[in-house]
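Hi again,

Forgot to attach this to my earlier email, sorry! This is the prediction with iron/sulfur cluster bound. I've pasted everything inline since the attachment limit keeps bouncing my files.
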Amino acid sequence: MTSPLLALTSEEWENLCDGCGRCCLVKLQDEDSGEIHYTNVACRFLDSGTCRCSDYANRAVVQPDCMVLGPDRLEVLDVMPWTCAYRLAHESRALDRDPAELSVAGRVVSQEYVHDDQLEDHVVDWVGNRDPESHL
Ligand code: SF4
Ligand code: SF4
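Structure tokens for the complex follow:
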């Protein structure tokens, strides 16, 4: 089935983002299960006040871990937060939630202040790539 995302113009594509900032949180992957765990640690380029990237044009270069989503990279969606507007559109789902409630503003700490060894202590359950209500 063709993704509804592929019918969007580039302007519609950009406008779809609700600016929650959730995709810019550092993620850990379980070596055995492959499971993705989100942390409350934000990429060093995320402005945690506005939830905007401070170097969006160069994000793929300045941050190799950045999940650059695009019409030609829809596979990235599987790792994106299950609440992400792109995933919702792609999966033809609706979320009964105010986008403002999804914002990470005020809930995260910058990567600049957290050592890699401490990341496991920052795993949180309020964001993830699997819907906690789903048993899929
Ligand atoms: S570099 Fe990527 S992960 Fe980091 S803030 Fe910018 S868009 Fe988000
Ligand atoms: S998770 Fe999705 S909706 Fe939220 S900032 Fe990232 S791309 Fe935009």
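The radius of gyration is 15 Å. Residues 24, 43, 45-46, 53, 59, 63, 66 surround iron/sulfur cluster (ligand 1) (CB under 6 Å).

That should be everything now.

G.
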